[in-house]
Amino acid sequence: MKITKELLAVWEEMQEKAFISYKIDPKTINANISEFESLTLDEQKRFLTELLDKNQLYVNYSEIDDEDYKISEYADKKLNRMFYGEE
Q1: pTM as predicted
Q2: Contact predicate 3/37, CB 8 Å
Q3: Which residues 6+ apart lie within 8 Å of 46 measured at CB?
Q4: Contact, 41 vs 5, CB < 8 A?
Q5: Which of 34, 47, 60, 80 has the CA that lies 20 to 30 A from 67?
Q6: What is the C-alpha separation between 87 and 78, in angstroms, rounded?
Q7: How many other CB atoms are there within 10 angstroms of residue 48's CB atom?
Q8: What is the DSSP secondary-structure string of the chain?
Q9: What's the pLDDT tens digit per position in 2-56?
């Protein structure tokens, strides 16, 4: 299935760039990837969403300059600084 292959590509990218929950061991998922492939499309999407560390969806203002978060200078940092009256 083309969409499953695309979601597997998303999973590969998540392993490289996303903040995955500390409760998740990507090696275990990779070892059992056939089970992921047997899920319905909605289940696959929900599964990948559940792997994310939801605490990392929001970056504290004090940490927006941390390189790990790759916050964009213009779109995000500038808006935040304007909101807090620094620009």
Answers
A1: 0.66
A2: no
A3: none
A4: no
A5: 47
A6: 8
A7: 17
A8: -HHHHHHHHHHHHHHHHS-B-TT--HHHHHHTHHHHHTS-HHHHHHHHHHHB-GGGGS--GGGTT-GGG---IIIIIIHHHHHTT--
A9: 889 999 999 999 998 888 999 999 999 999 999 999 999 999 999 999 998 887 7
